[in-house]
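for the writeup, i need someone to sanity check this before i put it in the appendix. the sequnce is what the collaborator sent (i think, or maybe the updated version? ugh). structure was predicted straight from it, no edits. if anything looks off just tell me and ill rerun, i have time this weekend
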Amino acid sequence: MFLRLLWESFARQRRRKLLAGIAILLGTTAVTAMLALATTIGDRIHRELAVYGANIVVFPKAEQLEVKVGGVDVKPATGGAYLKESDLDKLKTIFWANNITGVSPEFRRSGTMIRPSQTPAKALWSPQSSAPPAPGSVAVDLVGYWFNHPFGNLRTGAPALHPLWKLQGHWPSETGERSNANYDSEEVVVGAKLAERFDLHIGDTILLGPEHGGRIVGIVTSGDQTDEQILYALDAMTPLMRSIQQKSSAAAWSPAIDRVEISARTKPEDAFARRNPDTLSPEQHEIWYCRPYANSIAYQIREAIPGAQAEQVRRVEQTEGTVLSRISGLMWLVSGAALLAAGFAVSAAMATAVLERRGEIGLMRSLGASKSAIALLFFSESGLLAVLAGTVGYLAGSALALWLGARIFPGDGTPPLFDWVLLPIVVAMALTVAIAGSAPSIRKALAMDPSMVLRVDA
């Protein structure tokens, strides 16, 4: 009997039920689209803002030490402190290792470049020394990078962390090349301004010391100081770098690095993120440690790599957090407005339906039906309508989220169409809206005197 009454209510009030269902469908469509975008918005914004560079930088802790004699700073320009490239594997052991999306170590050496007169090479680079620079020489840094380096599940390096760099040619090979037993030749890339100054082209050779050459395989335009540098693959120039770094020729030698840029997915910074972890209680420290703040990831890097100091790049991190918080707030506002509008629409539709069926309610009360049974009937109607409309709204919202994502973040790949975890959440929201919207009308209907209702309808 109950199911028959339920069916008859849908059959006899198709228009009212359709209007209420459309309201719930539109509300859940908007909510599903916002939730689906919210689950990926952090990663997508992180990729979009990656053009600003890394959000964590690592350097030797000894670089922060001051060396003064008689009040005069005698610390060398390079600091003489380095990290080991082999220590970077320890980044894979930290708690938030899977949040690291890019790693770019570098080893920078200052030097000068001149036009040689007695060699076929177009330019000669020499490391900085205490001797006066040669006439006509230009200060040029030689910088080693990763370019397409395997790191766990990543292929990473400087190009991945600097997507705005424009390259003509190709990046240097990380395996290097050896032309003959007496002369080492490696692939290098030169900055656009440096190439213009010395009339360098792809295929030309420059000298990087008396027994080492660099074959130009690319010219990079970056818009910063990189335009005046020589770039090489960090693992390729082993003989030259050993001589510059004054290291032994032992087989266990590992390239030195003086800076590491790291890009990581992080949680927007808040007041708790800026707390000093050493002043927190053990419980608070554990919470702080297990949240993907840039500060907590940097803290874990300092723990993992001996002699390293890791700091967040606040300009990048705060920009990402600000953009993400504002977009998230807007998405929650749209979702709340959609659900509120759906609730009002359901309430209006249910109030009209109850008004039309007050004679039926009075008759059921006169025949002995309890208030709870009548309320269950109306709430079942609303619940069934919410489940149907919420499911359709979930499907429509998933398609809408895919369409919006493709236009807001073009070229970002195509995520799965359906996130089935959201389905029970959306249906639960639809049920909440439908029941909350129906409750006032049902309560008012149950408060009516059945005899008065039947007398008026008669």
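The chain has two domains: 2-48+318-457, 54-312. The chain has a mean pLDDT of 78.
thx in advance!!
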